[in-house]
């Protein structure tokens, strides 16, 4: 999947690749239900492959990935704050269990910084934690600080994974 994504991103040029690396991670965290399907981490790994093959500047890929991660987290947080429980009602009933939402909100309220950091590296949580932080009333300032720290760690790791895989792929 990553090789296919990198090859197709290379066909749209540098700006298309940067848009992919910025917007796919942003959509992943901004839209909790759609974010489960959108491969944000895969897009950033593909960006690392493109940077290795000198199709896109490395610094540009890193900045796009960081901005996408933080922007998506911010949008997800705002969605959670705005729509609260209405957002959770959109989750299919078979995925919701009684009491789990309340427990998750209590955990987020008590450990929001750690939750944001861990979630950035965990696909399923990466889509849910931003909205849960907004629902739980996590202070925006602290949330954004943790979001930047998490993104600043996550982006280079994903780009490095792409760099490591790139020698085995031809574009």
Task: Walk me through the topology.
Blueprint: H1 2-11, H2 13-30, H3 40-52, H4 58-88, H5 100-110, H6 112-120, H7 123-136, H8 140-165
Helix pairs in contact: 1-2, 1-3, 2-3, 2-4, 3-4, 3-8, 4-7, 4-8, 5-7, 6-7, 6-8
Describe, in plain words, how this protein is organized in 3D.
With 171 residues, this protein is mainly α. α5 crosses α7. The longest helix has 31 residues. It is elongated and about 50 Å long.
Shape: elongated
Number of helices, counting only DSSP H or I runs of 4 residues or more: 8
| Alpha-carbon distance between the two ends | 14 Å
**How can the largest sheet be summarized?**
none
Q: What are the low-pLDDT stretches, counting only 5+ consecutive residues below 50?
A: none
Order of helices and strands: HHHHHHHH
Helix coverage percent of residues?
over 70%
Overall mean pLDDT stands at: 85
Tally of separate domains = 1
**Beta strand %:** under 5%
Provide the structure class.
Answer: mainly alpha
Q: Any idea what the radius of gyration is?
A: 16 Å
- β-strand number: 0
């Amino acid at each position: 999947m990553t090789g296919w994504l990198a090859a197709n991103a290379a066909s749209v040029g540098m700006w298309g690749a940067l848009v992919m690396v910025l917007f796919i991670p942003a959509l992943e965290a901004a839209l909790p239900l759609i974010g489960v399907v959108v491969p944000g981490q895969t897009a950033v790994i593909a960006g690392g492959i493109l940077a290795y093959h000198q199709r896109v500047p490395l610094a540009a890929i890193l900045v796009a990935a960081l901005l996408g991660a933080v922007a998506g987290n911010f949008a997800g947080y705002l969605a959670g704050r705005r729509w609260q429980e209405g957002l959770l009602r959109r989750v299919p009933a078979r995925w919701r269990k009684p009491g789990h939402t309340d427990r998750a909100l209590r955990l987020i309220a008590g450990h929001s910084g750690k939750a944001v950091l861990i979630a950035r590296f965990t696909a399923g949580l990466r889509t849910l934690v931003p909205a849960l932080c907004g629902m739980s009333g996590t202070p925006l300032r602290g949330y954004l600080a943790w979001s930047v720290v998490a993104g600043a760690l996550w982006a280079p790791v994903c780009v490095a994974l792409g760099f490591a895989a790139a020698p085995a792929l031809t574009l």
